[in-house]
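Sample pair:
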Amino acid sequence: MNTTYIIIGIVLVLWISGNLYRRHKNSSKVIHVDKNRCSGCQRCIKRCRRQVLETVEDETGKHVVVKYPDKCTACGNCLDKCKFKALKLIERKSYI
């Protein structure tokens, strides 16, 4: 029984430290939308917890833009949802 608790504890510590490492590693990054590839399906918007993305419609059509890049944590949740490969992480310095 004690072995089970030790294994669960180790797994929990590794999971928490992995999340902290990923958050620190991506703190210098921000999401970028390639509007030529974006279809405007809004799957990424629904997945974003920080509400960073927004849909706009202009002469090129309906697509997603990064409205609040300062709120973006580069978690990558929206990257997983995009079937058109329109999203990518870039350095925050090159975004500005």
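The chain is about 40% helix and 25% strand.
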